[in-house]
Design goal:
- The chain is built from eight helices and eight strands.
- By secondary structure, the chain is of the alpha/beta class.
- Strand 7, helix 8 and strand 8 form a beta-alpha-beta unit.
- The radius of gyration is 21 Å and the shape is globular.
Length: 215
């Protein structure tokens, strides 16, 4: 969201306001930051008090309200990490029955699932931005939204930070430091690795018979 805020603020025709509990680092030029930090006890109350505070803000002051948090009444939801109901189903599926039961009855789980449903059932929701076709498919499978409101916008790459020239500048040094030599190297990147296929990756790597290093 920080990158999105900074990009929007660079356009002088946009007036960007950010509501958050905190902002780390310098606030970008052209951005008005409003600290919204209602008191809370525990993670469930933390989410609930913030959602409640956001919903009390006068909507008429803004042309568009965008968030990656599960808050009913926003215009555009950015489903950067997928949807919670799908994540929970995949995570709990691999657990013993008693842990699945406890997991589904956990207060944080119940609150998040209800908040997500309120978000997707809200009449104010105009668009959902998904980072992949998989997330889009999950949204449409679990919630009755018109397909034309659910869009895929892939994560961009900063071509300055990840310029191709760094391949020649750092490749040899890093491979030597890690003891990789001339081996073929595969890199697995991702949080929530169970949902992103770490076990399937390890199983495939152990069976394929190729000589490579998996990081």
């Amino acid at each position: 969201m920080r990158d999105l805020v900074e990009c929007l603020a660079k356009d002088p025709t946009h007036q960007v306001t950010v509501f958050a509990r905190d902002w780390r680092g310098e606030i970008p030029a052209g951005v008005r930051f409003e600290k919204l930090n209602p008191p809370y006890l525990g993670s469930v109350m933390r989410d609930w008090t913030f959602e409640r505070a956001i919903r009390r803000i006068t909507r008429s002051a803004f042309d568009l309200v965008v968030s990656d948090q599960k808050i009913a009444g926003i215009d555009v939801y950015i489903a950067g990490g997928g949807i919670h109901i799908e994540w929970a189903d995949r995570k709990l599926r691999a657990m013993p029955w008693w842990r699945r039961l406890l997991g589904r009855l956990a207060p944080q789980q119940l609150y998040t699932l209800r908040a997500e449903r309120r978000l997707f059932e809200s009449k104010a929701l105009r668009a959902v931005v998904c980072v992949s076709q998989t997330v889009r498919r999950d949204v449409l499978r679990h919630f009755a939204l018109p397909q034309e409101r659910v869009h895929v916008v892939y994560n961009g790459i900063d071509l300055v930070r990840f310029a191709y020239r760094f391949r020649t500048l750092h490749r040899g040094r890093l491979r030597n430091e890690m003891g990789l030599g001339d081996k073929t190297v595969l890199l697995f990147v991702g949080g929530g690795m169970r949902n992103k296929g770490i076990f399937e990756t390890l199983a495939a790597a152990s069976r394929c018979g190729l000589d490579f290093e998996l990081l």
